[in-house]
Amino acid sequence: MVKLKRAYEPPCADDGERFLVDRLWPRGLRRGELSLAGWLKDLAPSDELRRWFGHDSTKWPQFCERYRQELQMPEKQALLRILAQKAQEGTVTLVYAAQDKEHNNAVVLKQLIDEMIGRGS
Asked: Is 90 exceeded by the pLDDT of residue 120?
């Protein structure tokens, strides 16, 4: 199972393994506060794509398309396969800092992982 959670929400036991999926560390938080299994900044959107999107929800469809293209790179596919395997075995929580819970890179990652394990939303 894949869950999404803002970095500013406290960790809880049912989060399973928690992975930060942003390129930048969340402002105002110390490393130990997030209880992470890993920081997968290589799965985050490129700086160019992140700046272009700027959390502008009107650009969401284009962002999703461009981000999915970036995620086709072999090294990113390898990381996605690891997360998909972990999600089949237990709970994986993708942690992100964005305020918009519906329009952020973690949403796209969750969709992709769900598709990989046959749980497309």
From this structure: no
